[in-house]
Amino acid sequence: MILNVVVVAILFAFPITAHRTSEHEHRQDIFASPPDVSADQTWLEKYGLQSDMAFTGPLSFSHLEYARCLEDASKNFDIAILGMPFDTAVSYRPGTRFGPTGIRMGSRRQHVEHGYTLSWGLSPYLQGAKITDCGDVPLNPFDNAVALDQIEVAYSTLLQRDVARNVTESTVAGMRAFAKDNKEHPRIVTLGGDHTIVLPILRSLHKVYGPISVIHFDAHLDTWPPNKVSPSPQARITHGSFFYIAWEEGLISNSSIHAGIRCKMLGDGDLENDESVGFKVISTDDLDDLGIPEVIRRIRNRIGEQPVYLSLDIDVIDPGSAPATGTPEAGGWTTREVKRIIRGLAGLNFVGADIVEVAPAYDHADVTSIAAADLVEDFLSMMLSAEPPKPRDERKPWVDKL
User: Fold this and answer.
1) What is the pLDDT of residue 283?
2) Which ranges constitute the DSSP H helices of 304-366?
3) Residue 387 has what DSSP assignment?
4) Tell me, what's the pLDDT at 149?
5) What is the DSSP string of 156-198?
6) Burial class, 16, CB count within 10 angstroms (exposed 0-12 / middle 13-18 / buried 19+)
7) CA 208, CA 276: separation in Å to the nearest integer?
8) Chain-centre distance of CA 136, in angstroms?
């Protein structure tokens, strides 16, 4: 009996010991210098460039070139990524001042060197346009009047910058036709920030293009009139009234449209006011009743050939998929549905775009930030495409050789 126990112990001991020895030898091989390599070599000589991995390096959107464009007038670009860390005009949950950083964090697995997607059939980074992350605008968190002025000044500063290169002559000629000065102006994709930032952005765009149309993805109308009794002129401007203020100031044309509306309202009066401000409504339910192609058709018909600005509140997506937002509403669209609609808008005359209301403190496993970052990359493809991408089977028909 004792002999049997000893034999079993020996049999078990030898594989374990052998495994540990092998593992130790493997670690030695990994960390030991190759025998023919000098120990005093530099990193560059031995391993090459100091390349950033997906989870390392400076925090720029999709590892794009980063520049402080507001202070460096030598930096030109065709499309700028610009953060607006502002959240002091919200009605419910604050936290979107961290949105630009959150979206950039969500973009870390994206990269300019592998931006090709099956959906678009292209990479936005290989279309001849120079895309630069211009950092964040340092906004005053204590005075909204100052902060909104800072947003307008910052946006106008970049909007007046010379473009880096001509993308396509047809696109350039088309955009020049809308500008008051008949020049091509760069386009800006803004990372919010609460939705109020769109008012100073529209003020900046109006100086260049005049009144423009807006495609507004959101759960909420954001066209509500300010309270008649307001403690100050600045208090009239919130993330729910900014479109009304924009209409008062003549910044938007009477051909704008909402997509994804599902918020609670006082009644039909809210819709009547919304239409008077220049919007038509596509509700969340309309997607089920009409289908994605019809939703796209209605948006495109509403906008036509007008210069258009796209503003996307992340709460258009159901909070089950994008919980990190200040005013979540149940029953929203899926990320995939929103992405498909955006693909269908390519070829419209976009003068700019934004994604707003990302509040990372309410996120789980970065799902909202990842979705937002992916949508920004769709914005870039949308702006740089002359028309919506054809279905994959039209681009390259399926051939079954079995």
Assistant:
1) 98
2) 335-343
3) S
4) 96
5) HHHHTSPPSS-S-HHHHHHHHHHSTTS----EEEEEESSGGGH
6) exposed
7) 25
8) 14
pLDDT digits (tens, 9 = 90+) for 179-217: 999 999 999 999 999 999 999 999 999 999 999 999 999
Q: Which of 46, 2, 4, 103 is nearest to 325 (CA)?
A: 103
Residue 273 near residue 222, CB atoms below 8 Å: no
Percent of the chain whose predicted confidence (pLDDT) is above 70: 88
Tokens representing 26 are: 């493997």
Q: 235: exposed, middle or buried (C-beta count within 10 Å: 0-12, 13-18, 19+)?
A: middle
Sites in the chain below the pLDDT cut of 50: 1-3, 5-31, 170, 172
Nearest to 88 by CA among 135, 138, 148, 156: 148
Domains annotated for the chain, with CATH where assigned, are 61-215+305-389 (3.40.800.10)
**Residues with Cβ within 8 Å of residue 233, at least 6 apart in sequence:** none
Q: Is 182 left (phi over 0), alpha (psi -120 to 50) or beta?
A: left
Query: Is the separation of the CB atoms in 238 and 281 below 8 Å?
Result: no
In angstroms, the CA 139 to CA 88 distance is: 11
Do 89 and 140 meet the contact criterion of CB atoms below 8 Å apart?
Answer: no
How far lies 139's CA from each of 71, 90, 149, 150, 170, in Å? 15, 16, 9, 6, 37
Query: What is the predicted pLDDT for the residue at 20?
Result: 41
Beta bridge partners of 353: 189, 310
Q: Are 138 and 69 in contact (CB under 8 A)?
A: no
Closest CA to 377 of 63, 50, 27, 25: 63
Helix (H, G, I), strand (E, B) or coil at 84: strand
